[in-house]
UniProtKB/TrEMBL annotation:
Coiled coil regions, renumbered to chain: none
Segments passing through the bilayer: 12-39
Highest taxon above the source species: Bacteria
PANTHER family: CUTINASE 4 (PTHR33630:SF9), CUTINASE RV1984C-RELATED-RELATED (PTHR33630)
Protein's name in the database: Cutinase family protein
UniProt keyword Disulfide bond present: yes
Keyword entries, A-Z: Disulfide bond, Hydrolase, Membrane, Serine esterase, Transmembrane, Transmembrane helix
Matching InterPro entries: AB_hydrolase_fold, Cutinase/axe
Amino acid sequence: MLVNSRSKGTRRFWPAGCFTVLALLVLAIIVVMLLWYLLAGRLKTPPTTPPTTTPPPTAQSADCPDVMLLSIPGTWESSSADDPYNPRANPISLMLSVSGPLRAQFPDDRLEVYTVPYVAQFSNPIALPPDGQASYNVSRTEGTARATDVLAQRHKQCPLTNYVIAGFSQGAVIAGDLAAQIGAGNGPIPESNVLGVTVIADGRRTATGPGQPTEIGNPPPAGEGAEVALRGINVPGISMTGPRPGGFGTLAPKVISICAPGDMICDAPREALNPLNALGSLGALIRSAGNPVHALYATNTVDANGTTATQWTVNWAANLIENAPHPPHS
């Protein structure tokens, strides 16, 4: 009797090589499809839209001034509540000898004069009883913040406005610190918008190192700023920060420094302000803020023509303002 090879219960097994061939065939199909997608551009990264850059403005609001003078008074010459457009905290503030003549010389649409209102004090840490004043750190921080804020706000509102910055004593430290930030590329306004900076009796003055300003006076005093002479001293409320790292950076060619010989705020010999005698040195520094030399920049002269420091600053600023661009207004 013959048995049917296809009878029920009989199974046919595929040879192992068939599965290998089938797998290779599937793989080949996938590779072909992948190549087709690649060649057809289907797997290319979608083109990215290049970031749009806002073109620089060609005009600004009609209420924007062509130039803003930022005036920063010295110790005991301002107050936090003072009116920046009509300062009255100290009627004999040295900076009024600069801002007043400039305000009178130029119309409001050409020049905005803004006097930074800040506490402008320097508490004596060894006074008994305590003198009740704000510390130097608090005062300087407030002045710097207010000056920075107004520059940033005005630049946002008026992108074509240019700036002249000037400060005296503690105000010179603030103005110089702002200038150093701008010159390092991290200030509230671009370096290109700054016409010039003058610091009178800068406590962080140094005659050496990179990025130094132009010194007015012949010869410049041989000393250095009190904060440089006392660098590293930290007592409650008073931090002597030393020289500005990098000086004024790219802004240095536009920065002017005026220091009267013998003014210990900006012309301090190291032996006079000895860090080893921190409290005594700080006391000498505070007393020097009212010394005759420091108080006479409105009368001491800076050149052979008898020009005073404040007159020189007015003439310097007026020349910058007269030659500043006239931005279109919309």
